């Protein structure tokens, strides 16, 4: 019989598998958006223009990874840089019209992929799932073992 900790480990493995499958699908799909670029695009489309360090902090990613994602997004025409009145050297990353169109297509495709699963779940099950994932994220000690 599994203990609660083992069950939560099963949840983590399932999340990892789902993440890898979704990443592969969206990177190979007609949209072809790398996961890092998508994460930055989704964040900025829901908020406002931000500097790379703040984006990295919010997404819990390294600044270097976010900078590479932003640079790639600029090449794709979905991000642009703006002057930052609060900091001369740290420019703001914002979403272009092409970027807004791209994230709309990505989210629409995601909804299409989830429709069958959605039909098999109740609102309570979805709420419980979100509660479990948020609790794990907020309560687990994610610091490296040598820092504890």
Tally of separate helices: 6
Q: Largest sheet, described in full?
A: 3 strands, antiparallel
**Could you give the distance between the termini?**
30 Å
Looking at CATH, the homologous superfamily is Winged helix-like DNA-binding domain superfamily/Winged helix DNA-binding domain
Q: Which regions are unreliable across 5 or more consecutive residues at pLDDT < 50?
A: none
Work out the strand percent: 5-15%
- Spatially, the strands of the biggest sheet line up as 1-3-2
Could you name the CATH class? Mainly Alpha
Assign the CATH architecture.
Orthogonal Bundle
- The structural class is mainly alpha
CATH topology: Arc Repressor Mutant, subunit A
